[in-house]
User: Fold this.
Amino acid sequence: MKKFAWLLACTPLLLAACEDFEGGSNAPSGQFIKDLPEGVLALAAPYQDLTAVRIDPTTKCYIYRYAGPVETTFLPLRSVEGRPICLQPADASAAS
Assistant:
């Protein structure tokens, strides 16, 4: 009987643990870039999902939603060479 009582007491906690979490970013999950710049489209490797792309606020790089067999997560958007595609700082273009 004690086991059943513990099970009933822990049920809300166990159900709360099953809540769906998306990624590790603070941005709302529905805020994706609708029209990617032409330069990003030209650089991006073909195996990535370009329908769900946003900018990571900490790294200022593009990330895309990857739906794997176990979980859905955000990965860096990479070029064909494997480099991450990031925003260029405004003052970096003046220096070059």
Q: What stands out?
A: DSSP finds three helices and three strands in the chain. The two ends are 74 Å apart (CA to CA). Residues 21-29 have pLDDT under 50 and may be disordered.
